[in-house]
Specification:
Function: Has an important function as a repair enzyme for proteins that have been inactivated by oxidation. Catalyzes the reversible oxidation-reduction of methionine sulfoxide in proteins to methionine.
Helix content: 10-25%
Low-confidence stretches: none
Number of helices: 5
Distance between the termini: 57 Å
Strand order of the largest sheet: 7-6-1-3-2-8
Shape: globular
Organism: Stenotrophomonas mori
Keywords: Oxidoreductase
Mean pLDDT: 95
Number of strands: 8
GO molecular function, one term: peptide-methionine (S)-S-oxide reductase activity
Largest sheet: 6 strands, mixed
Strand content: 15-25%
InterPro entries: Met_Sox_Rdtase_MsrA_dom (IPR002569), Met_Sox_Rdtase_MsrA_sf (IPR036509), MsrA_MetSO_reductase (IPR050162)
Length: 216
């Protein structure tokens, strides 16, 4: 009989996944840093969901990006509805840790958001990010429009060329459209590093530049 650890490097089959729950986890719908809502209609703005390892440091990277209106952390890409953090860490939900990035396209281009994503982690590592091992740390982009999907694919191809030239392997990032359901994480994870400035941040890129959205 397989133990929980067996699921850290492979996604569970639907019949293996935890059942989850119908009700969303409680959410204080105010961004701790800038006071914007975490959940809403976001009229006139764009939403992109990205997974790049532990979501604490990843969320901070994006809320610091000019033109980003709001961020939130959550779970996406798996089977279990409304999972808890402990359930996601078990490897039995299929979800990865993600950041919901809400941005104003009049202030920051999608290419800039994508470049920040690629340069902030190593997208060639499969089911881990640095010393963080498990399916919940896999790289992912969940797109909310065909245009986002096309741009994400193009950015992956451009970055792969740079990574290959630098000696890295193939990109393992999942690029998904339409985006899978996004389940908001527990309140204590939201803007975690603003609430806990000395908290863990495993964010680290390859040092390779992504050549999109740059003036030449």
């Amino acid at each position: 009989m397989l133990g929980i650890g067996a699921f850290k490097q492979r996604l569970p089959r639907p019949e293996e996944a935890l059942p989850g729950r119908e009700a969303p986890l409680p959410l204080h719908n105010v961004h701790y840093v800038n006071g914007q809502p975490l959940r809403g209609a976001f009229a006139g703005l764009q939403v992109l969901d990205v997974g790049l390892g532990c979501f604490w440091g990843a969320e901070r990277r994006f809320w610091q990006l000019p033109g980003v209106v709001s961020t939130a952390v959550g779970y996406q890409g798996g089977v279990t509805p409304n999972p808890t953090y402990e359930e996601v860490c078990s490897g039995l939900t299929g979800h990865t840790e993600v950041v919901r990035v809400v941005f104003d396209p009049a202030q920051v281009a999608l290419d800039t958001v994508l470049r920040t994503f690629w340069e902030s982690h190593d997208p060639t590592q499969g089911m881990r990010q640095g010393n963080d091992n498990g399916t919940q740390y896999r790289s992912a982009i969940h797109c909310h429009s065909q245009a986002q999907f096309d741009a994400a694919i193009a950015s992956r191809e451009a970055f792969q060329q740079q990574l290959s030239a630098a000696g890295y392997g193939g990109i393992t990032t999942e690029i998904v459209f339409p985006a899978a359901p996004f389940f908001y994480a527990e309140d204590y994870h939201q803007q975690y590093l603003a609430k806990n400035p000395d908290g863990y941040c495993g964010l680290g890129g390859t040092g390779v530049s992504c050549p999109i959205g740059l003036d030449v």
